[in-house]
Design brief:
Blueprint (H helix, E strand, L loop, with lengths): L9 H8 L2 H5 L1 H19 L12 E5 L8 H14 L4 E5 L11 E3 L5 H4 L1 H10 L3 E3 L3 H11 L5 E5 L11 E7 L26 E5 L16 E9 L2 E3 L5 E2 L10 E5 L4 H10 L6 E4 L18 E5 H7 L7 E4 L1 E5 L4 H11 L1
Parallel strand pairs: 1-5, 1-6, 2-4, 2-5, 6-7, 7-8, 11-12, 11-13, 13-14
Antiparallel strand pairs: 3-4, 8-15, 9-10, 9-14
Helix pairs in contact: 4-6, 6-9
């Protein structure tokens, strides 16, 4: 479990290790626990119906609020299922997108403003059809109407969206684990830590250290370590490619990230030997309506793929996208998943 930086906000430190503020918020966490329990009970006993799609559904989510690495996991899952003969489609909330009662469906190069940054990135990276709506059952129905050949649905997030029935649940966590183990707002958890015993697999994002040991394999969910390998950098302005290692030793290199855990991206770059003259952590899903880089004195600015999707309109030749690819300690992870899907 990694410790937050001493410069991290007070609440982030409390969420990881506890403290006076977390203790003060425990009554509100108890209220969260009651709401979560009642919601799960309502779906379990049928008082609230869940939509059962005519094809298997794989939900990839988390219980720790914020970014843990779900998007690279979704991309890897879609690619692995296609390689095993499936025709996958993706449903997502479409964070920040204004939608009416109808879901929105697209494929290929999609506008982040119309679909959200993560769905647009998934569509670009995989070529799979994507449907978005806060009510993921509506997204699943629209996806299957528009793409009837889809034979498995991968849900980007949505572990807590019980209105969409699922056949496989995969939780992605990172080195923070379950933090102080408390529910929001006293802790970082959307659901009790005991939820991890109920899912089918727990994938732990260990960053970039491929040599780290995989998590132990206790009885219960399949335990897998994941790490993210950065690829060649791509200049957003014109698509020019450049080895990431070529930025090592170059002065005036900065990095920016509008993701759930920006520090993880900065750590990835430093692990490649890159000295960062400046770092710019931005809010998750930052919209880039205005450039945050105008006052940044840098010869090159490295950004995540999630940010790059929205940065093309800035026309800043200093911006370089750093794609990452998920790697796994378990070489049979997706063979196991394909078997589970065949059983359903």
């Amino acid at each position: 479990m990694s410790a937050p930086s001493p410069k991290a906000p007070l609440l982030a430190r409390q969420w990881q290790h506890g403290g006076w503020l977390s203790t003060l918020l425990r009554p509100l966490a108890a209220l969260t626990a009651r709401v979560v329990a009642r919601k799960r009970a309502a779906y379990r006993d049928g008082r609230k119906p869940a939509y059962r799609a005519p094809v298997p559904v794989v939900v990839i989510g988390n219980i720790y609020v914020g970014g843990t690495g779900k998007t690279p996991m979704v991309i890897a899952t879609v690619e692995a299922l296609r390689a095993r003969g499936y025709t996958p489609g993706v449903v997502s909330r479409g964070y920040g997108v204004k939608l009416g009662p109808q879901a929105r469906v697209g494929q290929g190069t999609l506008e982040a403003a119309q679909f959200g940054d993560e769905p647009a990135l998934i569509a670009r990276a995989t070529g799979a059809p994507v449907a978005i709506h806060p009510r993921r059952a509506l997204a699943a129905q629209a996806l299957l109407r528009a793409h009837p050949r889809v034979d498995v649905i991968v849900s980007d997030d949505g572990l807590q969206h019980l209105a969409l029935a699922r056949d496989v649940e995969i939780v992605v966590q990172d080195r923070r684990g379950v933090g102080n183990g408390r529910l929001l707002p006293a802790g970082p958890l959307r659901e009790p830590a005991s939820r991890l015993r109920e899912v089918d697999a727990v994938v732990t994002n260990i960053g970039t250290a491929a040599g780290d040991a995989a998590p132990p394999q206790p009885a219960g969910p399949r335990q897998v370590a994941m790490w993210l390998e950065p690829a060649e950098a791509r200049r957003i302005e014109d698509g020019a490619m450049r080895p990431l290692a070529s930025f090592a030793g170059q002065p005036g290199v900065a990095a920016a990230a509008g993701i759930g855990n920006p520090e993880r991206f900065f750590t990835t770059l430093r692990a490649q030997g890159i000295t960062l003259a400046a770092t710019l952590p931005l809010p998750d899903h930052h919209d880039y309506a205005r450039s945050p880089f105008l006052a940044l004195a840098a010869a090159a600015i490295l950004v995540t793929s999630k940010d790059a999707i929205k940065c093309a309109a800035l026309h800043d030749a200093r911006l370089w996208e750093v794609p990452v690819r998920a790697r796994f300690s378990d070489p049979h992870l997706f063979d196991w998943l394909a078997r589970r899907l065949r059983q359903t």
